[in-house]
Amino acid sequence: MAMAAFVCGLNLQARKERCQRLRLCMRESDGVRTAPPTVPEALNMTIKESIRNAVLSGQRAMRVDVRSGETDPDSPIYDEMMVVTVAAQAVDSMSTMLGEESKILIVSDLTTKVDLVATRLVEASTNLSQSKLRVVAIPEDAEGFKVDVDEDLVVILSPTNQPGRSVTKQVRQIIRAAFGRRTIVVNQRLDSVVGVNADGSEKRVGMLPVEIGKFEAAYVWEMYQIRKKGKPTAKLEDLDMVLIVHRKYPEPICIFRLDTMDRVCSLVHECGSTLPSHKNILTIAARLMDG
Fold this sequence. Notes:
Protein name: DUF1995 domain-containing protein
Pfam family, one: DUF1995
Number of strands: 13
InterPro entries: DUF1995 (IPR018962)
Number of domains: 1
CATH topology: Rossmann fold
């Protein structure tokens, strides 16, 4: 069975409106795991809780991935300020755990100017101030990149590889410069799947630095909208399947199936602490459809 999986997927405006109005629920029989919230709910509280739990358990290198229409650059409703808001929640949870003299370095790969990113970070948080922040753009050449002595938290914001433009090398250099400090990578798109090769392997836009591969997935919310290839879909209800990958640390990474009619989630697979690949998602979807 040929299928296509899209992170966020089709008819994004309609899905955005539903996420703002409705809460995703979980079947009682699966109550041992936290049901994935809607994106606004995740931004309000869940990301903060997850980062705090990860830090208190000793994690120093973390990643946060929130994939919705508003945070996906390939979506017609993409909003860079929503990505900054995701980062603000992660940083906000950390700011009260740093020393009074500690500063925060944000390295942004967004097109938004760094001064606007700094302003939005402060507006979207409860504990941040401009005096605590230094926001810089990801450099074309990061060799010799420096992290100031008092910068105890480094956040790499939406590092993105594109055809003809790779920032993998710069990201590796920044991570090395931040060695020993708490580091968070938010919504990285360094190895996004852009297709399938002739041998069935995933075609990716670039490479994920091995260092990020070792980062703890402190918070994950990704929606995959799945349909059979060639099948047109105009509404969320017309999709063959909707899967949500969710993790609220320290719970395992879980895959939930969303009933698009009643908005109820059912737990279908646990991944431990390893993020599932695009191929894993399609394999699970095929198994569910055949079952």
